[in-house]
Fold this sequence. Notes:
By secondary structure, the chain is mainly beta.
Amino acid sequence: MALEIERRFLVHGDEWRQHITGRDHLLQGYLVSGPGGLTLRVRSSRAEDALGGEPAEAWLTLKAPLAAGGASGLPGEVPGQPDGLVRQEFEYAIPLADAQALLALAPFQISKWRYHLALPGGDWVVDVFEAANAPLVLAEVELASADQLPPLPPWCAQEVTGRHELSNAALAREPLQAWSPERRRSLPHWLHRGAVASDTINRLS
Length: 205
């Protein structure tokens, strides 16, 4: 069984930019998503040097929570860890034309810049969200096991692993800028302001 073991953090500040090794522009559409955590996603990705051309790669990905009652003993499961830390993941490369057709069918979509970082302890990325999800910035680190404890940079301001409302699927359905002021107050203060153009965020040095 394929497993995704991932921790997620709200990012504050720009100190993470000194660790950038590359970036891609991602467009994601959700064909299936629900409160139980099952999602079917189509994604296209353009590397920075391919902007203006066709997406370089595309995937179809199904994610699901570990089966209730049948998860004991699965690799990576550790009692006491946050919900959503370990999920089943099945990902398949698909032709670009198929991805574009599926994106046209997807009712909920998000776009973001994904920055790849050179940091110890796992596979680190930072996602800078666009449009109605700006100015949200999230860090993700993929781990080899759920009991792995990577060193956390100071700009990882708050862990949000398992917070469904901040999952990509939920943000596609209900973006940050659509949240009520009362709901926004559950987030750190720097996310209380209005949207910022992604081009401006991306050019910060």
